[in-house]
Amino acid sequence: MSRRPTISDVAHEAGVSKGLVSFVFNGRPGVSPATRDRILAAAAELGWRPNPNARSLTTQTAYALGLVVLRDPAILGSDPFFPAFISGVEAVLSDRGRVMLLSVVPDEERELETYRKLAAESRVDGVFLTDLRHHDPRIALLAELGIPAVTLGRPDVPSGFPVIDRDYGHGITAVVSRLRELGHTRIAHVAGDDRMLHGTRRRDQFAEAVRASGGEPIVVGADFSPDAGAQATRALLARDEAPTAIVFANDPMAIAGMAVAQQLGYRLPEQLSITGMDGSEMSQYLFPPLATVGNDPAEWGRTAAHSLLALIETGASEDVTLPAAEFIPRGSIAPPPTPDGSAVDTPQQTATPSTR
User: Fold this and answer.
1) Cβ atoms of residues 73 and 286 within 8 Å
2) Same domain, yes or no, for 195 and 253?
3) DSSP letters for 310-323
4) What is the CATH number of the domain that holds 309?
5) Do residues 116 and 66 make contact, with C-beta atoms less than 8 angstroms apart?
6) What pLDDT score was predicted for residue 2?
7) Coil, helix or strand at residue 134
8) What residues form DSSP beta bridges with 218?
9) pLDDT mean by block of 10 residues, the chain; 356 residues
10) For residue 336, with 0-12 CB atoms within 10 Å meaning exposed, 13-18 middle and 19 or more buried, which class applies?
């Protein structure tokens, strides 16, 4: 070659991504022996060696972990997941002499640039990847930058980073099963942001559960924000055959949906059943108390912090599967109204506050 070889040249020669080349030369786990040998052979043939300045990023210590969130601040402010997640992280970091650096960004371009800046300035020792997206570009970028990371959820692209995951389909199936047992046949789902893996996975799990029970799913798209949940509720209840139950992809949208339904004159749960997801603390104090699927964001935070610290300190960390999400039945669900519009008189379900 007439020019100095680059990591891109090595990746092309070995038939892999730049991220995998970076993983091999930084000694990270997640690369098969055969692929590792192929990458090393390609680098030797081309005469490529990693930049010592870039390699030094792995030995410097910032005593900080990063969380970069691509969300509209208005949406982030109404989502109880992140405060609870951060509290779980801080509970671990406070005993380890580390801090968390939070950055909220408006778009993907700014997000990727933020990671590059964090690496260039050695401001964090590792990062938490939340709100995984389809074909998420952050995975390869962080591998290329040599920044250790833990993903909340399993990516749909190759990744050598440890995964913290939870079976959410278990809880969604339980929601649908209970609503079908109560007699609901028109069950709708207000889905989350379809750019996010957990938004589409929850939508698909709902649709699969409804079809498995012999029904036909009704799905309306939203973005996890209360405003979008309110708009979706109005659209669903304006239909000629409105649903008798609505399953929302998170609690903030469900809470907004409850308010809209009551403004329109619906009695809950006698004329409309509503459930949420993520088991927010506030959900149990509504009237009626909101049925939901538990998630325990603080547990996500604690587990992710332990995993990321292990990766930083030892170079390896195992995937962790949290206990399956459980359905928490409460007073916001009941049998559907009879054909004449009257409610079926049945005891409401409740759950103790400790069931989360």
Assistant:
1) no
2) yes
3) HHHHHS----EEEP
4) 3.40.50.2300
5) no
6) 59
7) coil
8) 188
9) 78 82 70 85 87 49 89 77 94 89 93 94 93 96 93 95 96 98 97 95 98 96 95 97 97 97 97 96 94 96 96 89 97 89 48 34
10) buried
User: Would you state the pLDDT for residue 342?
Assistant: 58
Number of domains in the chain: 3
Residue showing tokens 């930084």: 26
Structure tokens at 203: 């939508």
CA distance 203 to 192: 8
Q: Which residue has the tokens 């401001």?
A: 123
- The answer to the question of residue 272 being in a domain is yes
3-class DSSP assignment, residue 347: coil
Instruction: Give yes or no: residues 126 and 237 share one domain.
Output: no
Q: Among candidates 141, 185, 179, 177, which has minimal Cα distance to 159?
A: 141
CA distance linking residue 236 with residue 156, whole number of Å: 31
How far is Cα 42 from Cα 27, in angstroms, rounded to an integer?
Answer: 17
Identify the CATH number of the domain in which residue 15 sits: 1.10.260.40
Interatomic CA distance for residues 188 and 207, integer angstroms: 9
Distance CA 36, CA 39 (A): 5
Q: In this structure, is residue 193 part of a structural domain?
A: yes
